[in-house]
Amino acid sequence: MAVSFFALQRHKLHDAGLGGQGIARGSHPPPFAAGNFSMRIATWNVNSVRQRTEALLAYLQEVQPDVLCLQELKCQEAAFPRLEIESAGYNVAIHGQKSYNGVAILSKTPFETSLGLPGDESDEQSRYIEAVIPRGRTVVRVGCLYLPNGNPIESEKYTYKLAWMDRLIAHARKLLAFEEILVLCGDYNVIPDARDVYDPAGWIDDALFAPGTREKFRQLLALGFIDALRAATDAAKNYTFWDYQAGAWPRDHGLRIDHLLLSPQAADRLASVAIDRDMRAREKPSDHVPIRIDLRD
């Protein structure tokens, strides 16, 4: 498919010293040609991998990500379509859970993994998986996360969400000390600011947009992370989620809640950002769409 880049975003990347071509929406360019370093990393909440297997395989074929992080698998490892994905040329690591949650990392290169977010051994929810992926003379560390929704805000679910974010901040601080190419990506269930929601006033009491949630997200960024999309564009309405109900998709009532946060070493290599918006218009879609980055020297 043809690539549609926004000229304004292209200039912003150059002005920020990040090079590259900016942000594309709903386009499937080929991966970068081999060089000293290049990597395409995507993240996608598939909202049940068993229901989205055909769409997942099509996405791998069309976009050819080097790494794809998946959230909300809603299955245990035995029910994951491993054989189909391995046949498409990917190594697979899964942290599954029956009926709920579940995360996975797919990579064209074999990699090492660790399961679970440190900080609470009693937490049985499968929401975090981390990979160290060799790439040429270096390694890339990728954390794939499915942050708790937290609603209703007056419940223990919100307390759990904020505590989970505190654990993520603590772990991320340790990871940054390695000074590696690091990408923390996934469904954060966080709307960072008013540009990222179709009706800010209507969402102020929701756990995704509540002041406490956004403050924790700012604390995470303040460690030294760069929000990949905001490195490319200041524009509003770059949504990654549209509810199945109330005509959200045709009315473009969306949210930006899927993010790729980059360490300085990763941000230095950021070449482009793309939201594959067209995936929401396909048959049996997830309510989320993939968002991806290209890194290169």
Summary tags:
Deoxyribonuclease I, Chain A, seven-stranded mixed β-sheet, 297 residues, single chain, six-stranded mixed β-sheet, alpha+beta, disordered N terminus
- The name of the CATH architecture is 4-Layer Sandwich
Radius of gyration: 18 Å
Count every beta strand, where a strand is a DSSP E run of 2 or more residues.
Answer: 15
Sheet of most strands: 7 strands, mixed
Can you list the strand order of the major beta sheet?
1-14-15-2-3-5-4
Name of the top-level CATH class: Alpha Beta
Q: What proportion of the residues is helical, as a percent range?
A: 10-25%
Number of domains: 1
Query: What is the CATH H-level superfamily?
Result: Endonuclease/exonuclease/phosphatase
Average pLDDT figure: 91
In whole angstroms, how far apart are the ends? 25 Å
Give structural notes:
- The chain is globular.
- Mean pLDDT is 91; it is low at 1-22 and 24-34.
- The two termini are 25 Å apart.
- The protein has one domain (7-296): Deoxyribonuclease I, Chain A (4-Layer Sandwich).
- Helix 4 (156-176) links the parallel strand 8 (138-146) and strand 9 (181-187).
- The strands form three sheets. The protein has a seven-stranded mixed sheet with strand order 1-14-15-2-3-5-4. It has a six-stranded mixed sheet with strand order 6-7-8-9-13-10. The chain has a two-stranded antiparallel sheet with strand order 11-12.
- The chain has helices at residues 7-15, 53-63, 82-87, 156-176, 200-203, 211-222, 228-232, 264-267, and strands at residues 22-25, 38-45, 67-71, 91-95, 103-107, 112-115, 128-135, 138-146, 181-187, 226-227, 241-242, 254-255, 258-262, 270-275, 291-296.
- The longest helix is centred in the middle third of the chain and has 21 residues, at 156-176.
- It contains eight helices and 15 strands.
- It has 297 residues and is of the alpha+beta class.
